[in-house]
Amino acid sequence: MRSIFGLFGKSPFGPLAQHTERVHDTVVLVRPLFEAFTAGDWDQTAEIYGRISKLEHKADLIKNDIRDHLPKSLFLPVDRGDILLFLREQDKIADAAEDLGVLVTMRRTPTPEPMKAGVLELVDSVVRTSEAWFEAARELPTLEEASFTGPEVDKILRLINEVADLEWEADKRQAEVSKRLFDHEAEIGPVSVMFWMNIFRVLGAVANHAENTADLLRVMLAKR
After folding, report:
1. Which domains are present in the chain?
2. How far apart are CA 59 and CA 127, in angstroms?
3. Neighbouring C-beta atoms of residue 149, cutoff 10 Å
4. What beta strand segments (E) does 36-174 contain?
5. Using an 8 Å Cβ cutoff, are 118 and 200 in contact?
6. How many CB atoms lie within 10 A of CB 129?
7. What is the pLDDT of residues 11-47, one digit of tens each?
């Protein structure tokens, strides 16, 4: 693959924003993935998982290119180690989205009808958390232009705080839907219950990694 640094010069922030875009693309498909899965449309579930997997691979290619070409001697407005930590955590968002695709195509697990709305509400809460992270992270090139100072920083800090609030909401929804799941154990069986608990755990991981990535951006800003 031709290095993405050929498009953006030596600065890592353009490529980081490109990685942000590709990671976000995987999360966008989580909602349709669960619409298909909860509807029992196994073919559509598999098709969407395939799209997520391809997008995750594209994100990996950009991640590897950044790691291979991140300048060691060029003066950067933030610590090189912080950039690499940010990149690693951001990539885990896409990894978790792909893990969800693996899980829901692994077993044809039924969704109790009374659970469907709650599951999709949890999915939406997780996606909202990730979208708030995306709004902040895609501003990295703009932050670099402003030397990580000025009013742009205040805007990003507000978005970072929003990510934290939304992740907290997602945690609450995850706990609520998990408790309701056990009301249907007799209907779907203990194996399906435990399978769903694993799905909820990985869903929560998408939001957790989004919050962690936002926190690492906060660290970069705080060190300026």
Report:
1. 10-222 (1.20.58.220)
2. 18
3. 11
4. none
5. no
6. 30
7. 788 999 999 999 999 999 999 999 999 999 999 999 9
